[in-house]
Amino acid sequence: MKIKFAGPSLPRSGVLVLPVSDVKKLTGAAADADRLTKGQVGRAIAAAAFTAKRDSVLDMVAPGGGFGRIVLVGLGDTNALRPLDIEMLGGHIAGTLLGLKVKTATITAATAT
Q: Considering only CA atoms, which of 21, 15, 56 is closest in space to residue 33?
């Protein structure tokens, strides 16, 4: 797996990983993705009863908006996150993507709350 860093922009296609801490009100990249998918992100969150508990994952296949897949990864309480938790989050995301056989993905650095 190769890791590449890019400027803060939402891709228009491919696999998107969104770390989220609260799903009651989508903001930032999650709100943008929800807009691009015509509300599919919010509907999937509601249908799956996704709560963004730490290390929880919601995998959305073909949600629209040009994305092949959107993967939401729960952060839990961001006020309680330590540097080691962020490092472990990276490993968790990498393991999830490998398990899904994803070769290329965009991971947003800014959390969606």
A: 15
